[in-house]
User: What shape does this take?
Amino acid sequence: MVEVPESHSGWTFVTNHARVLAAIADNPNVRIRDIAVHCRLTERAVQRIISDLEQDGYLSHTREGRSNTYRFEPDKVLRHPAEAGLTVAALLSLLVQDETDHRRPAGSASRAARFSAAR
Assistant: This one.
């Protein structure tokens, strides 16, 4: 996982559900404990969010030994009417970056390549 950012207070632009989904998209084998640390949530909160995402068809998992491998649905449309027509892949292309993207100028075309390829 990437380095955990400094804590903050006040409102944010991104929901906890989006943060958890982005952490999973970044690493489909990530542990709940690591998601919790990265997103600054409790493990129980992460479990509830994963349950929400699975219940509504945005996420699924398969058990492999003692760990889970998650799969998100890139073509699933976001829930809120204001985002009508926007897909999970479009959201994640903004939230998750490849390591090579950290070295590219902003707005590079390859930024969403991983998610558009999943379609």
User: Anything to note?
Assistant: Residues 40 and 72 are 21 Å apart (CA to CA).
